[in-house]
């Protein structure tokens, strides 16, 4: 059997042949419990035998399995990763975990291929209890990894899964017969059952163990939790601090102290890595164990960790009440300042479009600016004033006041240079330089934007996104080779993300490197098959190269994911034309134009089909409709002129050829040759000779445009 497999029921049973099995329950080690456990098992061997393979994937390996730090090379550091918590002013986007998942997929496939254990059989159990990071990874892994290289067995207990993983299992995994839950080991007394439940770190599904836990003496439970937490801490595995240890401490003798501290540290760590679902969980649990009246700072920080994570995940309406609640509870100036900034960003940037209110955002940020200006510590006053004014600059940009935004950012940089030591807030300095570069870009001041993006790269040379942004500026300046070089550097610094490859593919196509563009667009749709523009571009380039057979699966996969898309229906029609199936081609082109009547490519293709069938009137009608949409396209005018010429409508053909000759990009020699023939048919010998002479000499001739 070559398919991956999906089993619903208890843990793997005898007869399931697996090389490595891992437990994915997030209660054990939090985000990437399953992937991290797998990496801890295979990376040491891989590093000893193929260090180059590990070095290509350091970021994703160390993000999912932090215990390996020190055992293998360090990942490239950025100012974001180096910043101390109080200086961290940049957060990762929500899709960073997708990049990590793609990189881990490629590492594991490479490991299996080099180890020669084909297929490597991997079992992931209790996946329905896994953190969204693991479920996202498994959805991508199932889709991308070939079953002859790695064969995956997914075990679930019947709980709800993330939609992407459910879809991947339905498509890529064969369903095994459902197994019934096996009862726990019989004959255990209540103390054994209680200890078993605590030792399972809250992941036990055994009803007898749960019952014994609930019925046990509370003090006995607390003692067991404290002892278990101490035992786990003694192992020195950092990832246990993201799962089992906080769970034990929440239920131990000091939930509001040690428990809240463990939850806060877990939230801080996961927030720094972009594991936002876990941050919400830790923050919510932490709020439940602390006293908001006596532990104001801890309650505040746990609350804002959770609400900030909600914002990044797009749950802004859910997040806003937390900020308002904090503002109503406490008169602490820095809290009022930070929540005012957060609310300003909600209303200018993060809320759904219908809820945004830039003027309300200005009100919140101006209040925060006023508070910042009154802070007693001069360094804090300088930093927070600059930070809040940077927020105001973003609002000004949203309001279209670009010069004001630029002035605010520039003034902020100057103030930091004047009032703070150069080694303080290096990350925020780089953010300000980057923002100033973006303001220059919005103003069309490309050379200045390039200067600032080059400066920010000098400040933070391992941050891939800066090269991505500079590539865009270089492209606009016409430096396509430099733009490709920046894309190459960004790719070398980051786990895979499709936007980089998409932009590089566009650049390569513009430079005439069609093979390179095809490879990059192909990789984009491998990473993210729903990227429709990349798929359409890939198909078009493959057709240009004559690779018709390579196009077919892309068209069908595209239509499977985007049923009724006009561009894909058009391309299916193009394939049918290639196959000589005129009736099918006509049907597909009709469907494309029903979906998008203004799709110029489909109108032109249907016109060509009609012309080939001798239906000149229909061809002219479709070309006329296409020209109404794209009036400055010389090729459309040439084609309509050609149809008129074939139908013997010489004057109409002359008119179209003449219009086309006035347009940039026209094939002048061919147009003059065709117009000369039409003039001859009309009896205008002088105009015909003039066109022939101009065509031969390569010179324009407007004499026939009467």
UniProtKB/TrEMBL annotation:
Residues 687-706 are annotated as: Disordered. TPR repeats lie at residues 430-463, 498-531. InterPro entries: TPR-like_helical_dom_sf, TPR_rpt, Ycf3. SMART domains: TPR (SM00028). SUPFAM superfamilies: TPR-like. Keywords: Repeat, TPR repeat. PROSITE patterns: TPR, TPR_REGION. The keyword Signal does not apply. PANTHER family: TETRATRICOPEPTIDE REPEAT PROTEIN 6, UDP-N-ACETYLGLUCOSAMINE--PEPTIDE N-ACETYLGLUCOSAMINYLTRANSFERASE SPINDLY-RELATED. This is Tetratricopeptide repeat protein. It comes from Micromonospora rubida. The lineage of its organism: Bacteria, Bacillati, Actinomycetota, Actinomycetes, Micromonosporales.
